[in-house]
Amino acid sequence: MVKLARILTSSPHPTGPILTAQIPTSSLQCAKLLSLADGSHAYVILTSIAHNASQFLSLGSSALTRANSLIETVTSPACPPEIQKKLLIFERDVTHLLSPLDGRTEVNKFLCIGMNYVDHCTEQNVPVPTVPLVFSKFGSCVVGPYEGIPHYGPRNDEGDVVATSHAAVTATLDPEPIVTSKLDYEVELGIVIGQTVPRFTSKEDASKYIGGYTVIHDVSARDLQLEANGGQWLLGKCGDGYAPMGPVLVTLDEFMGGNHGNDDDRFAGAGDLHIECRLTPKNGEAMVVQSSSTKNLVFSTPEIVSYLSKFMTLHPGDVIATGTPPGVGCFRKPDPLWLKDGDVVECEIEGIGMIRNEVVNCVEEGSFVPTKVDDSKPNAVEVVPSVVGPPSSLEAQEGLQQRRLKNTVCVVTGAARGLGYGIALRLALEGAKMIAVIDVNQEEIDHAVSQLETEVRQLLEGGNASDGAIFCGFACDVTNTEQVADTVRHIATISPTQRIDILVQSAGVVGQTSLLTHQVEPSNFDFVMNVNVKGIFNGCQAVLPYMLQQNYGRIINIASIAGKEGNAGMLAYSTSKAAVIGLTKTIGKEYALNGITCNAIAPAVVRTKMVADMPEEQVKYMTDKIPMKRCGKVEEIAALVAFVASEDAAFTTGFCFDATGGRSVY
């Protein structure tokens, strides 16, 4: 379980708000740390895993595993003080706790469900709905858990807010700063989507796409919603500041089999959470105005996600407010209860926490908590890069490992082991910002990501460790065209720069060996060609649209000397690698005017697990042809990849680089 929190600190972070995991100070196992703690919470920095909550959720179980490992490390008494100092933030250094999702850059869809509590329907004496009632808010409604709710109410000569029939009917016809005189409260459980939800997802499968839950205060201007011009639902629900959110986003595992649910719970862990809203009038006493349980939901959280998927694709960071229990102001008897300036509303849900927002008459321009927003990053899945051409700070430099790939987003296939793993490590040491590790087995991928993070930390210790790459791992069958396209699209969406700069394709298979052509099984030939050729084609076709948009890209395909000379007894493998070289030369020519280079590297035999699994006589046959009489090293090939990917090789495209120990003669 991770409680994701977005914070600002007294020492501003260069990238703006910091993604953290909120932890209780009681979890600190070091006496010295406990003595430094000055509040009930501390915060563990998660920016080595993801830059924001939606990106974190989209990484799935691997992000959770890495975050929990990081939390365990930082809170351990054995953790070195310098690591704790770098990764742990105490409450005294937190200046603002922001909404866990940034409304402008992370929330693409903000959907709401009306009439979704049985007791709320009873309160209104209306039938319980048979299908969800859906409306929407905007991401711009989102504010932090402790920010002000703007009122803009009409006032009398003494400056007091007064009720009118529906104050905003004339709001667009005169310059008066009047919006509503009937501001209302609604506490709601918020679903945050963690993984892209396919269309027509069943309710049985919907839970796997829920990233977690948060608290939402669905503020409503009832005169606009229910009275003005026959009912202006959009205006009544979508005002700036009409969706306080937080204080944290709690990942779903806390509720599914955690402290509040079980794995087969049809409510996805939200089957019986206490939900409450308290109102403290200005100069008055606090009172509970809403109190219920999510067991009274008409439609469960998986049912809601399933229903919405009939009409639209939901993406990581999308928010769904699941409805409010009875007790809202507009239905109170004998008189409605409207919010006034100075009132304080507290919304709390079991297992998540409480948000506390004061009603203020107006919010002056710029008075909201300052969050650093990059307006060039769209929320839509169709990504338009913020920078055209090479990533910022990427330039040709002399020397070994001089961070020649700084700020790049890289994709490496076949990277869970062997050559691909070594390439991913080298790209990180060259300054890559994010490296997506692609292979077929998620467990092996997660292990590789963890090992890569450890190696980079060790190798960069005392250097640029704080700027280490973000590693993320994805299981993907490179022969599946749609799966490859979806994976690349997902990587582009979550990447910190909204780009894909470098693709290195090292996924491959050898197939059957030590066979003459008439002995080769056609099915094995097809299998090798499918992985080694179609897989390369799929990867190129998936990344090229992104590279064309940004007018920059580097594609490096791992071929083989067997593709140039042919190895006896390896018909399928040699044929496939020859095809890779031809494909590479074609793409290099086609996109030469678009800032995109495509090159191949043709190693001789390299000592990897794949080679280790080959018959010894086959390996000897290959090394006997090498003047150096040895296998190549993974590090040697990775170094060549880093060069080809850098600006040092910008004038070379459609070329096949050899790494053969002297074997190649052309």
From TrEMBL:
Superkingdom as given in the UniProt entry: Eukaryota
- Tell me the keywords, alphabetical order: Metal-binding
Q: Which residues form a coiled coil?
A: none
- SUPFAM superfamilies, from UniProt? FAH, NAD(P)-binding Rossmann-fold domains
Pfam families per record? adh_short_C2, FAA_hydrolase
Q: Which residues form the Fumarylacetoacetase-like C-terminal domain?
A: 110-360
Q: GO annotations under biological process?
A: small molecule metabolic process
Q: Does the keyword DNA repair apply?
A: no
One term of GO molecular function: metal ion binding
Which InterPro entries does this chain map to?
A: FAH, Fumarylacetoacetase-like_C, Fumarylacetoacetase_C_sf, NAD(P)-bd_dom_sf, Sc_DH/Rdtase_CS, SDR_fam
Keyword Transit peptide present in the record's keywords: the answer is no
PANTHER family according to UniProt: FUMARYLACETOACETATE HYDROLASE DOMAIN-CONTAINING PROTEIN 2A, FUMARYLACETOACETATE HYDROLASE DOMAIN-CONTAINING PROTEIN 2A-RELATED
Which protein family is named in the record? Answer: Belongs to the FAH family.
Protein name, per record: Fumarylacetoacetase-like C-terminal domain-containing protein
